[in-house]
């Protein structure tokens, strides 16, 4: 009887020893199971979400939204943007890049464009009454028939700009560079042009009555049929014509 118990014990122990590796295997896998349910670690370079994100740099789309929503975007990049026929009165676009921007027939009353880059911008028939364009870059810009009454363009760069039939009555163009600018038929009644460079400019048919041209450069300026009644022209360079009083 005792011998049978010993044999049974030996058989049971043999079975347990045979099953031991399998039990160890299951125990190890059960401890690793939670980690398999976690999200796989993906590097930033291989993540589709991160890879598709653009760098956070200004571009015309977001800057345009800012202009339309807040009426200001100083130093923004709006090159080539089309803002024609919009009411942007009192907008602040100081130091903005507006190269080749379109402002045809846009309301820009009392707008701020100080130090703005408006090279080749189209401002035809724009309403810029009282606008601040001091030191703005308006080279080759088109301001034909624009309303610039009481606007300040002091020290602005208007070389080769077109201001044909523009309204510049009582505007401030002191020390403005208007070399080779087209001002045919423009209204410059009472305009401040002290120290302005008008060399090579076309002012034929322009109204310069009561304008102040003290110290202005008029070398090669076309003043044919221009009205100069009561214009102030002491120390102007290059003017040899007669004035009417």
Please, could you describe this protein's structure?
It is a single chain. The chain has helices spanning 2-36, 48-52, 60-70. The protein has 245 residues and is mainly alpha-helical. The chain has a domain at 76-239: Pectate Lyase C-like, CATH 2.160.20. The longest helix has 35 residues, at 2-36. It is rod-shaped and about 140 Å long. The model is unreliable at 32-59 (pLDDT under 50).
- Helix content percent band: 10-25%
Q: What low-confidence regions span 5 or more consecutive residues with pLDDT below 50? A: 32-59
SSE order, one letter for each helix or strand: HHH
| Rg, nearest Å | 38 Å
CATH class of the domain at 76-239: Mainly Beta
Shape by Cα distribution: rod-shaped
The number of distinct helices, counting runs of at least 4 residues, comes to: 3
- Portion of residues in beta strands equals under 5%
Mean pLDDT: 84
Distance between the termini: 149 Å
Can you count the beta strands?
Answer: 0
CATH topology label of the domain at 76-239: Pectate Lyase C-like
Named at the architecture level, the CATH assignment of the domain at 76-239 is 3 Solenoid
CATH superfamily of the domain at 76-239: E3 ubiquitin-protein ligase SopA
In short:
The protein is mostly helical.
How would the blueprint of this fold be written?
Layout: H1 2-36, H2 48-52, H3 60-70
């Amino acid at each position: 009887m005792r011998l049978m118990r010993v044999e049974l014990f030996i058989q049971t122990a043999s079975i347990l020893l045979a099953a031991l590796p399998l039990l160890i295997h299951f125990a190890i896998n059960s401890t690793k199971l939670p980690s398999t349910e976690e999200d796989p670690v993906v590097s930033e370079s291989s993540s589709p979400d991160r890879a598709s994100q653009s760098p956070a740099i200004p571009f015309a789309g977001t800057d345009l939204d800012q202009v339309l929503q807040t009426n200001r975007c100083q130093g923004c990049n709006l090159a080539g943007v089309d803002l024609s026929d919009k009411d942007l009165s009192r907008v602040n676009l100081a130091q903005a890049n507006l190269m080749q921007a379109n402002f045809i027939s846009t309301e820009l009353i009392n707008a701020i464009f100080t130090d703005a880059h408006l090279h080749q911008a189209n401002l035809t028939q724009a309403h810029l009454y009282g606008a601040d364009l001091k030191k703005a870059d308006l080279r080759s810009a088109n301001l034909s028939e624009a309303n610039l009454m009481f606007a300040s363009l002091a020290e602005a760069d208007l070389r080769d700009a077109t201001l044909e039939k523009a309204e510049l009555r009582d505007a401030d163009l002191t020390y403005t560079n208007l070399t080779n600018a087209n001002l045919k038929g423009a209204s410059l009644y009472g305009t401040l042009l002290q120290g302005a460079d008008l060399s090579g400019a076309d002012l034929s048919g322009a109204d310069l009555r009561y304008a102040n041209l003290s110290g202005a450069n008029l070398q090669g300026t076309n003043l044919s049929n221009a009205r100069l009644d009561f214009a102030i022209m002491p120390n102007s360079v290059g003017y040899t014509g007669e004035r009417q009083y």
